[in-house]
Amino acid sequence: MIETRLIDGKAFAETLRARIASDVTAFHAATGVKPGLAVVLVGEDPASSVYVRNKGRQTLEAGMASFEHKLPAETSQDEVLALIATLNADSSVHGILVQLPLPGHIDAQAVLATIDPAKDVDGFHVVNAGRLAVGLEALVPCTPLGCVMLLKDTLGSLAGLEAVVVGRSNIVGKPLAQLLLREDCTVTIAHSRTRDLPGVCRRADILIGAVGRPEMIRGDWIKPGATVIDVGINRITGADGKNRLVGDVAFEEAQGIAGAITPVPGGVGPMTIACLLANTLTAARRLVG
Ligand code: NDP
User: Fold this and answer.
1) How much is the average pLDDT of 165-184?
2) Which one of 192, 197, 221, 277 would you pick to mutate in the ligand 1 pocket, going by the greatest count of ligand atoms within 8 A of its CB?
3) pLDDT tens profile 81-93
4) Residue 246 phi, psi (nearest 5)
5) Cα angle vertex 230, ends 226, 233, to 5°?
6) Which family does it belong to (predicted)?
7) 148, 179 in Cβ contact below 8 A?
8) Are 6 and 230 in contact (CB under 8 A)?
9) For residue 222, how far is the Cα from the chain centroid?
């Protein structure tokens, strides 16, 4: 039986954040500029409020400036666009993040399209998505970037490996497939219309779950020795009536089959904010020159 290795995203993210903090100190000493991240939150979605608070705290801990703009839920689209225009023009702001989801009366695509692509640290602007697709330097979405960092740390070179990404969202699945292609993997993107999903998954040396369905990917869908990255974050109520978080992969079933796997929580999740900080520093370096 294979001994399944745990990929510790929490520890990796801590090391990454420490490295970013020291790079921020060096950047500040060389240029006199402190990288600045502006986060825009519209409304009071409880999960979004927690994310924004965590982002603000970790931004400050990395030695960067944090600008939080909390707007009431009834804020008009024009007011949000006007704030983004102000942030685009503000030289102390190097990264702009609009927390999703936005209230229903605001067109998220219109808002994302207004962010200066050079400050688009979430990497959701079509200019950055297009630059990634054609192999140009881009700001890359944080969660996929974190997944590839964990994979390279676990496996070294990814060249020639068969990668299957389950999920094709613009936020995770599609950019992750592009990044794996850039690492010379042979990439398959699976989705809700894929035929014989278990069979497709069994081909994978690298199997990624980015679906949002609790424990959908079963142990016998995993090729022995494969590296499994579980992006899913699903809240379920256990038999004891308590809420807990599970991924898209049946974690217990994967033990003894997968070569390595990320846990949920403590796998991909902590990498997302760390990569947001990395993108903010990257944006500041490019903007300052
Ligand atoms: P979306 O809902 O945007 O996309 C889900 C994808 O899964 C779609 O492409 C969909 O296919 C596919 N899918 C749905 N059902 C099935 C099925 N039965 N079989 C195969 N494919 C299926 O989700 P996101 O990409 O935004 O997020 C995915 C998960 O990752 C969620 O659990 C989310 O919470 C988590 N997440 C975690 C982050 C982190 O920091 N760790 C960050 C972002 C997301 P189709 O296109 O055909 O509908």
Assistant:
1) 98
2) 192
3) 999 999 999 999 9
4) -130, 160
5) 165
6) Belongs to the tetrahydrofolate dehydrogenase/cyclohydrolase family.
7) yes
8) no
9) 23
Residues of the binding site for NADP(+): 167-169, 233
User: What's the confidence (pLDDT) of residue 255?
Assistant: 98
Which atom, in ligand 1's list, is nearest to the CA of 248?
Answer: 32
**What residues have CB less than 8 Å from 267, skipping those under 6 apart?**
7, 8, 9, 150, 229, 230, 247, 261
Q: What is the ipTM of this complex?
A: 0.99
pLDDT single digits (tens) 19-60: 999 999 999 999 999 999 999 999 999 889 999 999 999 999
Domains of the chain: 32-125 (3.40.50.10860), 141-270 (3.40.50.720)
Chain CA centroid to CA 203, Å: 25
* 42 token code pair: 């519209």
Torsion of CA 90, 95, 124, 50, to 10 degrees: -120
Helix and strand counts by DSSP (H, E) for the chain:
10, 11
Q: Which amino acid is at 138?
A: A
Name the residue among 62, 68, 70 with its Cα closest to residue 279. Answer: 62
- Mean pLDDT for 255-282 is 98
8 Å CB contact between 217 and 201 = yes
Ligand 1 near 272 CB (within 6 A): yes
Tokens of 266: 């403590």
pLDDT at 289: 84
> At residue 239, does pLDDT exceed 90?
no
- The C-alpha angle with vertex 247 and arms to 193 and 231, in degrees rounded to 5, equals 70
Supply φ then ψ for residue 70, to 5 degrees: -100, 115
pLDDT(112) > 90? yes
268 and 144 Cβ atoms separated by less than 8 Å: no
